[in-house]
Design brief:
By secondary structure, this protein is mainly beta. It contains one helix and 17 strands. The chain folds into two domains: 55 residues, no CATH class; 143 residues, Immunoglobulins (Immunoglobulin-like, Sandwich). The strands form four sheets. Strands 2, 4, 5, 6, 7, 9 and 11 form a seven-stranded antiparallel beta sheet that branches. Strands 3-13-12-8-10 form a five-stranded antiparallel beta sheet, with no helix packed on it.
Length: 204
């Protein structure tokens, strides 16, 4: 009886549209959640500046707008950690999409890192041309490190789709007419109802 009830509920549940990305260069670190991260050391002895910047993406997520239930939109997350090991305060600046393929819609966190501190910044970019997350084939993010009026370093980090290892324990999202939430699964595929496919589909 329980199995039959689950089958009846299947058309009302679905995996939210998600695609994950990894840096295409300097992938020698991880994010706080374990995502692949690019790491960029920086230094300026004259201004007593030193440290490293870590940048990663928690993926592109497609969902309906909170303000407009009829509007489907895809947002891409990019996270930063700015670690300051020097004697001068540094700041993350100039964060934007290279070639303007994405538009910055939200920035949260502290962009300035005092000496001996690490600043965490999360940004979200709108992908206006994407009908769902899997249409985002890749992107590049420009960012700079500044100390006062001086630019210490400027970098463009390219990202490409990331295929998780089979044993990876990662997040999935689900929603239904009654609830929306997050769970966990081991790498692989799952069957669900895809709103952007217009019928049953596969989520991975």
């Amino acid at each position: 009886m329980r199995s039959f009830a689950l089958l009846l509920l299947l058309p009302f549940c679905s995996c939210v549209d998600v695609r994950y990305f990894a840096p295409r260069e300097n992938e020698n670190g991880t994010s706080p959640s374990g995502r692949p991260a690019a790491v960029y050391p920086f230094a300026d002895a004259e201004r007593e500046v030193a440290g490293e910047l870590r940048i990663w993406s928690d993926g592109a997520v497609g969902d309906y707008s909170e303000t407009d239930p009829e509007a489907y939109r895809v947002e891409v997350h990019v996270g930063f950690e700015l670690e300051n090991t020097g004697a001068t305060a540094v700041e993350l600046a100039g964060v934007r999409s290279e070639n303007d393929s994405l538009s910055l819609v939200r920035l949260e966190g502290e962009t300035r890192a005092a000496p001996g501190q690490t600043a965490r910044v999360d940004t979200w970019f709108l992908a206006p041309a994407a009908g769902n997350a899997r249409q985002v084939q890749g992107f590049a993010i420009r960012h700079s490190i500044v100390a006062g009026e001086h630019t210490i370093a400027t970098q463009v980090t390219p990202f490409a789709p990331w295929r998780r290892n089979a044993g990876y324990r990662g997040p999935y999202y689900y929603y239904s007419p009654w609830s929306y939430g997050r769970g966990w699964y081991y790498g692989g595929s799952g069957f669900g109802w895809g709103a952007f496919w217009g019928g049953p589909g596969w989520c991975w």
